[in-house]
Amino acid sequence: MFLLVALSCIIFAQAQYHGDIHHHHPQPYAFGYSVRDHNSQQHRHETGNGHGAVVGSYGFTDATGIARQVNYVADHAGFRAQVNTNEQGTANQNPAAVHVISHQPHVDTVVEPLHSHSVGVVAVPVVNGLGAGLVF
User: Fold this and answer.
1) Cβ(96)–Cβ(87) under 8 Å?
2) What pLDDT is stored for residue 22 in this prediction?
3) What is the pLDDT of residue 136?
């Protein structure tokens, strides 16, 4: 009896999956969101034309005013992005197919030498499996 039930289930399952396979063509789409709280804001928006081209943007602004906005295009010519930011340490540059546009003023910084100090290390016996064995 068990064998009959098992074979019936297998035959029934196979019968459901022998239909035509439907291939769906890409469809145009659009999505987006925008979130704002008391410390920051974030957003993302994207559209696709159904033929392989995508255009979008995303970005954020934090509580201190640091902001980044990325606008991008992806299509038959590849992925291209433009980054607008005021983040510290950025500069106008164009690595690969990305354009970084910095609004951070250029600052000449002087790097001070780092003076190292010795640190004492003392070995401590492990008690009942507790402790790492070293104390700094």
Assistant:
1) no
2) 73
3) 37
Regions in the chain scoring below 50 on pLDDT: 124, 126-136
**Tokens representing 78?**
């590849």
- Alpha-carbon torsion angle 44, 50, 55, 61, nearest 10: 0
* Three-state secondary structure string covering 38-99: CCCEEEEEEEECCCCCEEEEEEEECCCCCEEEEEEEEECCEEEEEEEECCCCCCCECCCCEE
Scan for tokens 């979130």, then name that residue. 35
SS3 content of the chain, % helix, strand, coil (to 5): 10, 40, 50
- Alpha helices (H) in 38-134, listed in sequence order: none
Residue 14 parent element (H or E): helix 2-16
